[in-house]
Amino acid sequence: MFGKRAVAFLAALILAPAAYAAAPQYFVDVGAGSAQARLGEPSGTGYRRDGNDVASAIRVGVRWRGRVSLGIETGLTYLGRFSDSYNLPGASVHDQVRVSAGLLGVTATYRADAPWYISARAGLLHGWLDISSQVKPPIYVVSGNGETAGNGWYAGVGGGYDINDRFSVGAHYDFHHLNASRNGMRMDGHVGTLMLQLEYRY
């Protein structure tokens, strides 16, 4: 299934420029908002399944303008920091994970009644999970750090208002599915973000 999605995604990247003969328009998009995570727990312990934190993102890309404008985007997003504490026989554990991702995808924007618009995006991501753990036995404390990474995908919808020909302000919800492994254990999960975003076009 993932292979078919990747093929379709690459085909969209190739065909999008050919579908629009209009001059391209470049854009920079910055966003900030909130994140809600549900992350897998290795061996039944570890990361809190439900956590909330702040999120941010920056994207750059190009669109070919039309009633429906199609484009290509890439960028980085910070998906938040999440933690949990739990007990093991003879010890207590505090885990924390910080999640970020690089993005590569396609976008579509529909302006039915300017200056209002609706938009959608989807693509592939590469996620990084920075993990720190602290174990507190009765006498001493042991700390450890590690990093795991893996590929996944993202998709989202939103809308907004064109302030003028160059600036827009809007809101966007994005779902990020993460696939990662560490020491042979899967640590899959997802993070949803709701962000206010400001876009500059040139």
Walkthrough of the structure:
- The chain is mainly β and 202 residues long.
- The strands form 2 sheets. An 8-stranded antiparallel barrel has the order 1-2-3-4-5-6-7-10.
- The two termini are 37 Å apart.
- 26% of the residues are buried.
Strand order of the largest sheet: 1-2-3-4-5-6-7-10
Q: What would you report as the Rg, rounded to the nearest angstrom?
A: 20 Å
Approximately how much helix is present in the residues? under 10%
What is the strand tally? 10
* Biggest sheet descriptor: 8 strands, antiparallel, barrel
Level-2 CATH architecture: Beta Barrel
Structural class: mainly beta
Quick recap of the structure?
It contains 1 helix and 10 strands; from the N terminus they run H-E-E-E-E-E-E-E-E-E-E. It has 202 residues and is mostly beta strands.
